[in-house]
Amino acid sequence: PVAIRREDYRAPAYWIDTVDLTFDLDPAKTRVLNRMRLRRNPDVAPEPLRLDGDELNLARVLVDGQGASFRMEADQLVIDNLPDAFELELFTTCAPAKNTKLMGLFVSEDTFFTQCEAEGFRRITYFLDRPDVMASYTVTIRAAKAAYPVLLSNGNLVEQGELPEGRHFAKWVDPFRKPSYLFALVAGKLVAREQRIRARNGREHLLQVYVRAGDLDKTEHAMASLVNSVAWDEARFGLPLDLDRFMIVATSDFNMGAMENKGLNIFNTKYVLANQATATDADYSNIESVVGHEYFHNWSGDRVTCRDWFQLSLKEGLTVFRDQEFSQDLCAEASARAVKRIEDVRVLRTAQFPEDAGPMAHPVRPDSYIEISNFYTVTIYEKGAEVVRMMQTLVGREGFARGITLYFERHDGHAVTCDDFAQAIADANPDSELARLLPQFKRWYGQAGTPRLAAHGVYDAVQRTYTLSFVQSCPPTPGQPFKEPFVIPVNLGLLGPDGRELPLQLADDEAPGAGTRTLVLTRAGEQFTFVNVDAEPVPSILRGFSAPVILEYDYSDAQLLALLAHDTDPFNRWEAAQRLALRAAIQAIHAPVVGTSDQPLDQAYLDAMRRVLRDPGLDAAFKELVLTLPSETYIAEQLEVVDPQRVHLVREAMRAQLAAGLFADWEQAYEQHRETGAYSPDPRSAGRRALAGLALSYLCLAARATGDAVWPGKTLQRFKDAGNMTDRFNALQALVSSGHALAAQALARFHAIFKNEALVIDKWFSLQAGAPDRGGDILPLVKQLMKHPDFSLKNPNRARSVIFSYCNANPGALHRPDAAGYVFWSERVIELDAINPQVAARLARALDRWSKLAEPYRSAAREAIMRVAAKPELSKDTHEVVTRALA
Ligand code: HT7
Ligand code: ZN
């Protein structure tokens, strides 16, 4: 496979103005007639027309109505000697029922769906399948009416009618030009929840959420989220809905979460369907952000799209930022906004930081790829969002909104670059730090790796000054041995000895400022001296996680306890607790002997946690976050050499200590927070359920150690009586994760109740495959689960629920001294690769961090990766991942 390089970008040799597609749908053999108007791009030296194709059968090629000569070069259809402007007619067939890759046109539960991003349109017809070729689409769909009563595509329905032999047709015209990756078609037996809304500007819109007949009662939340999204984008950024009709359709077979096709979003059922009996609070919250995310793409992605796939973060980073802001703005209380921020940072640090330190590390704007599907990463999405967030920090919230307005004014209807975005934000704020530092700021797009920021504070009691020094560095990443300094906005506060916020005054300032101040770092090393500081402060650095860096500050335990108790910044309060727990974990991991009876946590930590639990001024959701220990993955990232079993044992020992040490407090927390009233997924109620759930899991864990039967019994009762899925699932999880004997009957009952609810059965599988390992019991269980009649490797959600829950999310169970976990992983990667390369390549990422492992894990993991790499006929998706891992 060859690498595609960003620097090789060339404008296309032809433009496509119009595309007229006619589909005759048949699962075994769908016929596609494609009539296009093309013209030569006058800015590019003449060359043959090269159209991309993949797994198509070509039956006819006509140029201006005449048979034309053409040749095939690999997968491309090449035509020479074309006039400057012409009509091209292509007739092809494809086999949707055999399409297990779920890219292009495929069938899921007797319904046709498409997925064209990034390069799926070429599996439907030959095309210039690149995002900078934007055309106007007319689509006619013909199909058997009884089997496919609903026929959908992008834009407006302009005609429909009957055809002979029980067939019918629908014709759709999209009023907006679009790149091929935004094309969509759906055909099947579907029903829709509908809502008409009137936007601020008075325009009326029809919103529709299409699902299978039995699922209509699970669409209320998705519709409400869509209505909120439309209103939010108009209110916050002045971006209205530009279509008469906006449709969402759910499918249970999907490689990713959802897809923002213009006017016809296609969603994984996981991010649409919810009612209180089947969906947890987390599901409700994910639906809100994914519905928002896809809707916000209507501007950031569809109206203004990417020039090439290296610019992917232009739309993805910006749209994640927008969906994060949306979810925060929907929170009624500041504390709930802080909780959302902490959750987002937790994802970034547990998933993106390891990516940035591993073999797949790449800049937010990558320089090369072999398979673009491998670059839908947490770096493009989550780190990309942090880069946008830093821009907002540097220009202010209003300045950022001005920048967004300018960006869309300048580039509406065009395919542009990350540079164009940053330039628009800076141009709208000419006096800002961003405008002053723009070339340096853009290093965030070009340099991979997570910067380390070492900070050191010195108090001078005589001068009453406090000097903070910063040194930034960034480790080498593949292809980038050296890094230049980044622009790092550091939000800072200082706490006095009584825990109160100190005024901040730098030597040059005329007057002290109150609260948080943003320091903008630009050099490898720099110092800031604050004057009129009456006592030695505790610095609260990087408030709100103002930059995606690793902050190193040698806090004493006493300072961390002070921050946990008093910081006005909720993020740093939570961070102080994480640092204390992390420190205890690392000390225990490095101690000579370790066993489950070890006590990594000291009394001061346990007392602090008790104070948090009992604090009436803190929200339940925040308490739950503080009392949740850092994950095994996050702990492992802090170590040079990782013994995964040791990490697992130490974390389990910490959990046991928290369970036993705070037993009475957990009892109280559970009784205080268990919900009895009507269910509502709002953040406050969800936070109460989360804390009650955590309490229950600690109570069951403590009971396991003491042999007490009361709490497991109560938990089983809670499981049976629960009025919503969150409480029911939390109870089930408490029994399963504590390894209690009652778990088996609860699991059996859960399966029996929900056997017809695919998304709930996914949870059932996932819970078991992701459970804490005890003596190597999870791998045999996973193998057994794969033999369950409900298991299928072809359905991505189901495959993820078992295999990914084990390989990607259960390190204590995967990394076995006998290497059986790695053997299992390599067999599944190879097996999946033949079915669905995108899903296989994601699974292949599970061993990205193999080179950090201690022996014998390191050698065994490497051998397993080599076994996959040696497999002939591997997809380029999986091939790229494993060869990078071994490089
Ligand atoms: N923009 C969408 C990307 C996507 C995708 C990419 C590759 C293969 C399948 C896919 N399904 C959706 C999703 C999003 O970020 O909104
Ligand atoms: Zn997206």
Automatic annotation (TrEMBL):
<feature type="domain" description="Peptidase M1 membrane alanine aminopeptidase">
    <location>
        <begin position="223"/>
        <end position="433"/>
    </location>
</feature>
<dbReference type="InterPro" id="IPR035414">
    <property type="entry name" value="Peptidase_M1_pepN_Ig-like"/>
</dbReference>
<dbReference type="InterPro" id="IPR001930">
    <property type="entry name" value="Peptidase_M1"/>
</dbReference>
<feature type="domain" description="Peptidase M1 alanyl aminopeptidase C-terminal">
    <location>
        <begin position="557"/>
        <end position="887"/>
    </location>
</feature>
<dbReference type="InterPro" id="IPR024601">
    <property type="entry name" value="Peptidase_M1_pepN_C"/>
</dbReference>
<dbReference type="Pfam" id="PF01433">
    <property type="entry name" value="Peptidase_M1"/>
</dbReference>
<dbReference type="GO" id="GO:0016285">
    <property type="term" value="F:alanyl aminopeptidase activity"/>
</dbReference>
<keyword id="KW-0378">Hydrolase</keyword>
<dbReference type="InterPro" id="IPR045357">
    <property type="entry name" value="Aminopeptidase_N-like_N"/>
</dbReference>
<keyword id="KW-0482">Metalloprotease</keyword>
<dbReference type="Pfam" id="PF17432">
    <property type="entry name" value="DUF3458_C"/>
</dbReference>
<dbReference type="Pfam" id="PF17900">
    <property type="entry name" value="Peptidase_M1_N"/>
</dbReference>
<dbReference type="InterPro" id="IPR014782">
    <property type="entry name" value="Peptidase_M1_dom"/>
</dbReference>
<dbReference type="InterPro" id="IPR042097">
    <property type="entry name" value="Aminopeptidase_N-like_N_sf"/>
</dbReference>
<feature type="domain" description="Peptidase M1 alanyl aminopeptidase Ig-like fold">
    <location>
        <begin position="449"/>
        <end position="554"/>
    </location>
</feature>
<keyword id="KW-0645">Protease</keyword>
<dbReference type="InterPro" id="IPR012779">
    <property type="entry name" value="Peptidase_M1_pepN"/>
</dbReference>
<dbReference type="Pfam" id="PF11940">
    <property type="entry name" value="DUF3458"/>
</dbReference>
<keyword id="KW-0479">Metal-binding</keyword>
<protein>
    <recommendedName>
        <fullName>Aminopeptidase N</fullName>
        <ecNumber>3.4.11.2</ecNumber>
    </recommendedName>
</protein>
<dbReference type="InterPro" id="IPR027268">
    <property type="entry name" value="Peptidase_M4/M1_CTD_sf"/>
</dbReference>
<dbReference type="InterPro" id="IPR038438">
    <property type="entry name" value="PepN_Ig-like_sf"/>
</dbReference>
<comment type="similarity">
    <text>Belongs to the peptidase M1 family.</text>
</comment>
<feature type="domain" description="Aminopeptidase N-like N-terminal">
    <location>
        <begin position="99"/>
        <end position="182"/>
    </location>
</feature>
<keyword id="KW-0031">Aminopeptidase</keyword>
<dbReference type="InterPro" id="IPR037144">
    <property type="entry name" value="Peptidase_M1_pepN_C_sf"/>
</dbReference>
<keyword id="KW-0862">Zinc</keyword>
